[in-house]
Structures are given as structure tokens and as C-alpha cells.
Amino acid sequence: MARMKFICDAERCIECNGCVTACKNEHEVPWGVNRRRVVTINDGVPGERSMSVACMHCSDAPCMAVCPVDCFYRTDEGVVLHDKDLCIGCGYCFYACPFGAPQFPQAGAFGLRGKMDKCTFCAGGPETNNSEEEFRKYGRNRLAEGKLPLCAEVCSTKALLGGDADVLADIYRQRVLTRGKGADIWGWSTAYGKPDAPATAPAAGGKS
Amino acid sequence: MSHDMTVLKRLLWMVLTLCALAGGPVFAADAPPATAADQALRQQSQPLNNAPVWREVRSGEQHYTTVQGVETGVLIQSGGQTWRALRNGPLMLYGGIAFCAMLVLLAVFFKLRGPIRLSEAKTGRMIQRFNTMERMSHWAMAISFCVLMVSGLVMLFGKHVLLPVFGYSLFATVALVCKNIHNFVGPVFILSVLLFIVLFVKDNVWQAIDALWIRKAGGLLTGEHVPSHRFNFGEKTWFWLGVVFLSLTVGISGLVLNFPNFEQGRAIMQTANIVHLIGGLIVMTLSLAHIYIGSIGMEGALDGMKTGYVDETWAKEHHELWYDAAKKAQPAEKPAGGMPAPARV
Predict the structure, then answer these.
(1) Computed over its alpha carbons, how large is the radius of gyration of chain A?
(2) Cβ(B280)–Cβ(B87) under 8 Å?
(3) How deeply is B237 buried, as exposed, middle or buried, from its count of CB atoms within 10 A (0-12, 13-18, 19+)?
């Protein structure tokens, strides 16, 4: 059985937010919730990188570990899903998750939380596959239709990949090996010093 | 060996989280400052080594995103791992052990020692100990406390204790009800605590005779009655530790969790939850002893809070100095009408 994973290639992501939009549209996500978002590190600084992030479907999922009603479950393909009928909206998964994946539509005054919503890897929920009930609560179940997550499928630069981890690893390995050559290969300058580094001004106070 | 290290690390984190209550978020504080300048420099010196970016990924700092919301610009927030390790680890384990141990201890004590009885016969003459306002504030606090304790225990331990018995659907319903009750009763508890503090602080300050109570350990082991004013040192300790410090700590940290609409970040809520758990587990455990001594553990103790009046024998044996002063201040018999103010010393 395949182990489903996402990977975002930061060397390719162009911060177009196509994945964010596609996800929101495909699943008709509740108002105020974005199952996927693109974060740009040090925006505007040379060397900035963008990454698309959503639920990473962890092997040792923190949300699952802290849920007081144990509403999370893992499918045979390693996708972490949850049962909205059991969810009590306590917010513990939101405290525990490092990626900010679990989000809560506001269900009342004073920030009262509704049922948690998060990325499902386009795999729906515990209801019958592709039923109306499932779509209303969790969005489309593309995996049951034999399709991969839409965010990765629409990615214009194929920065975001989603699917069987073994296949993704092969694709990514191929990219790393063939991306640039000689001293342009990632890590070369770290391993072998600074090839013809431009004459940068020495730090103030440092030895010249 | 490595297990010891983990425990040490967790203890360190616990201290850090406690410090954070006073000093703001510590979770992000150990990360280096924004490295944008570093990164620009690195792009020139080693264009293919973008380590400053990857350092930022794990920093917990806000970066740019078009998605609106609280902390959406944070790519990875690492504090949740610490929160999870503390909550699911030592807090649940030692908190659960402490709570159960107190229950067992009280049961054993009751079996061996039995209730603390009056040495002399009741006189039948009643003397007022608490007025209506004082009793109302105590019971408002006590009832809301018990509701919060039960619902809190369900949310912390229910997954391991009730879920296997109830099954998923029923337990989720119970937990949902508990969560909502906990969230709405919490503020009521805080208000009743504040009122209680205002009403009782005057009689809970240090008095010279308290030293005697400490020297004799309250007469708990000897069975001797140690004289005291309106409240003895044990009651005063419970007032300052249980009501003032612990209940307010739990109350304030609870408010942080109860109102996420003030856009507080995850680090603050994780810290607040740890403080809430530590404070809650301690105060719950200690409250068992208070409930015991105030009900089945001591003959006549419950009457004071139930009716407002205690028998003169009880007053004399447990609070002799208060009794003497009260005798001077008001007639002995329970008045037929009207409600005279209780004597204070």
C-alpha cells in the first residue's frame, strides 16, 4: 500500500497561490478557513523561498495524540483524517500542530469554535465515499475517484507534489541530482568552500 | 540514562513555561533574530547555500503570506511539541497519580482515624459563624468548582478512562457537553472567587496564635484542639494557596484559552494550557482534602456552611478565641428574626 505524502520543492515554488485557490474551490471550504497556504520566507530579500503548507499527514501526528475524544484516524495510505461528528471544537489539535493545519470556523460569539477543518489529502472523511454528506463536511474525495490531491495536480511549476512517497522520492532525487551541474549543485559550496566567491567586504572589526 | 535526560529536559521546559507566565512567550525567544541581512550576504558569498532561509523556517517568526488570519505567516511553530510532551506525559501521569493518591489517602485516614468528633456534648445553643452572603459566595464557588473539576477531568482523562466504556459517539457527546459547561461556568467561578476573597480576606491575615497551630500541626495527629480565631492556620493556608493563588492562576489562564478571539498566538495558549493544567491538578487534589474535612471528616463542620450556625461546643473546641469574642458580642441564643452580623475578631 502506498504511503501518501506531500512535498513542496522550494526551488520551484513561485508563490502563485494556485494550490490555495484550487483547494478552496474544490472542497467549498468553510468561510475563514484555508486548508492550504503559501508562506514566503524573507520576502523581498535575495534568496527568498516560498513554500506551500497544509496538513502533512504525520506518521506520529500530534493532533491525533492530544485529541480528547480520539476523533482522528489514519487510512491505510497514511492519510490523517478526522470525524467531524465526534469533534468537540476544543482546539487542542490546533495547539499541537506545528504546521497550523487544524482550523476552526467560528461557531458563535466570543470565538466559540465549531468543528475543526483541515486538509484531507482530498480523501474525504468517514462517510460513504463521494456521498453528499461527505462532501458537505470534508469536501471532495478525489482519492476514491482514483485522483491525486488537486493542489498538487494544478501546481504550475510542479513544485508541490502529492502522492505515493516512493514515487515522490524518486522524482525529487532526480531533480536534486540533475539540478545544475558542477559547482551549481546544491551543497557544493558548503562542502568544498567558496568557489570564486565575490570579494565581499570583511565584517567590521574582523581580520583583513 | 537517556530517559533521565528527557525528564530533565521536560523539567527545564516546565520551568520555562512557568517563567513565560510572567515574561511573555519563551517558545520563540531562543531562535536567532531575523536573518534577512545574513541571507542577503550569504547570497553573495555562497549563492547556493541558503541556510538562513531554512533557519527561518523553524524560527516560528511571521513571514509573508496572502492568507489572512492569526499566525498564518508562521510556517512551523515548534512549541506544540513541547506542549504535547508535557500534557500527554508528566502532567497526565503525575497529576493522575496525585489525584488518586489523595483519594486513597483520605479513605485510609477515614478508616483509621474516623471523623473528628466533639469531645463534649452539644449544648444546643447555636452561634452564627457565616452570614447569608458569605455562604452564598462559598457555595457558588464550591458548586462551580465541582462542575469545572468533573468536566475538566473528563476532558483530560476521559479518553483513557471513559472512552473504552462509553464508546466513541456517547463519549464525544459527553465531552462536548463538558467542554461547553467548562467554558461557560469558568467565568462564573472566577467571579465567585473574587467575591469570596473580598468577603473573607479580613479574617485570613496572620495572627500570633497561628504559630501555635503550626507547632502542634493543627492537632491532626494528637487529636488535641488548638485554639484559634475565626479561621485557624490550616484554613488560612487553604484560603491563600487554594483560593487566592491557585484558583486565580487557573482562572486567568482559563480566560486566555476561553477567548481565542483576541488573536493571541499559539505559544501563549500552549503556555496558558500548561499553567491551567498544573494549577488545576494541584487545586483539585488539595480540594479533596478540604471537602473531606468539611463534610465527613469532622463532626459539625458542615453545619457552619450549610446553615450559617454552629453549636457552641463546636465553636469552643475548634475556634476558641473566636468563640470567646463572639460570645461577648452577641447573645447566645439563635435570634428568632433578623440576621445579626457574624462576630469577627
Answers:
(1) 21
(2) no
(3) middle
Convert the pLDDT of each residue in B108-138 to its tens digit.
Answer: 999 998 898 888 888 989 999 999 999 999 9
Q: Which of A21, A42, A48, A86 to mutate to test the interface with B (most CBs of B within 10 A)?
A: A42
Which among B151, B129, B127 has a CA at the least distance from the CA of B138? B129
Nearest to B72 among A87, A100, A185 (CB): A100
Residue type for position B226: V
Question: How many Cβ contacts (< 8 angstroms) between chains A and B?
Answer: 166
Cell of B211: 504559630
Shortest distance, CA B157 to any CA of chain A (angstroms) = 8
Number of H helices, E strands in chain A: 7, 6
Question: Whole-angstrom Cα distance, residue A158 to residue B283?
Answer: 55
Contact yes or no for A98 and B87 at CB 8 A: no
Give contacts of A70 with chain B, Cβ < 8 Å. Answer: 159, 163, 168
Enumerate the residues of chain B whose CB falls inside 8 A of the CB of residue A186: 48
- Taking phi over 0 as left and psi of -120 to 50 as alpha, with beta for the rest, A28 belongs to left
Other CB atoms within 10 A of residue B256 CB:
18
Measured from the Cβ of residue B264, the count of other Cβ atoms closer than 10 Å reads 16
- For chain A, the first-to-last Cα distance in angstroms comes to 59
Q: What is the pLDDT of residues B131-189, one digit of tens each?
A: 999 999 999 999 999 999 999 999 999 999 999 999 999 999 999 999 999 999 999 99
Question: Which candidate, B248, B239, B17, B258, places its Cα nearest to that of B151?
Answer: B258
Helices and strands, counts by H and E, chain B = 15, 3
Its ipTM equals 0.86
